[in-house]
Design goal:
By secondary structure, the chain is mainly beta. The protein is built from 1 helix and 12 strands; from the N terminus they run ββββαββββββββ. It is globular and about 45 Å long.
Length: 192
């Protein structure tokens, strides 16, 4: 998983580009998304709202974080390329003494999804103190049978340990700096 800032909205919301690829083929991402990160609305009991969106021309964004800034789409182009809304996860700060900094999930019932026979999908996300990201995306059919995604637990994205990643180009900063002001930064890889 690699993520980096892509744009900032007028209201201060951050737009992040995220791609997922297996560590053996980092130049061939299997998932590309834009994420909008902002404080939760006051009527909800959460700290951070993370919404994912499809990208209108995903090929143009391949390896976005690895490119020099002058070879990336401009922020106004990024905003214009925000496509279909896919999911929203509401995160809350974890209680003291827990391994996590933030955790949350999609609302009950998830979001519509038709991939591989699903009728809806759910996502659970945890950001741990050691900079790991645990993400559990699952799809379910009308009868609540799981039809895609891991059954046993979340994918665990661990901070990259190889030195070839330039932290300035691949910072993971999916959390809006909330009242506790703890930024999460680093590069992550999914080992297959």
């Amino acid at each position: 998983m690699m993520s980096c800032p892509a744009a900032e909205m007028v209201d201060g919301s951050q737009i992040l580009y995220l791609e997922q690829a297996f560590w053996r083929t980092p130049q061939k991402p299997f998932r590309q998304r834009l994420y909008m990160v902002k404080p939760c609305p006051k009527e909800l009991k959460c700290d951070v709202e993370v919404s994912s969106y499809a990208i209108r021309d995903a090929e143009e964004y391949r390896n976005f974080c690895d490119r020099p800034k002058d070879q990336r789409p401009l922020p106004e182009e990024v905003i214009g390329d925000i496509g279909e809304h896919l999911t929203t996860i509401h995160l809350s700060c974890c209680d003291r003494g827990k391994r996590c900094l933030y955790q949350g999930s999609t609302s009950p019932g998830g979001f519509p999804n038709s991939w591989n026979g699903a009728s809806y999908c759910t996502s659970d996300l945890a950001v741990l103190k050691n900079n790991e990201i645990h993400l559990w995306d699952r799809g379910f059919d009308e009868n609540r049978n799981q039809v895609w995604g891991p059954k046993e637990g979340p994918y665990e994205f661990k901070p990259a340990t190889y030195s070839s990643i330039d932290e300035n180009l691949s910072s993971l900063n999916i959390l809006y700096q909330s009242s506790i002001d703890i930024p999460i930064q680093g590069s992550l890889i999914l080992q297959d």
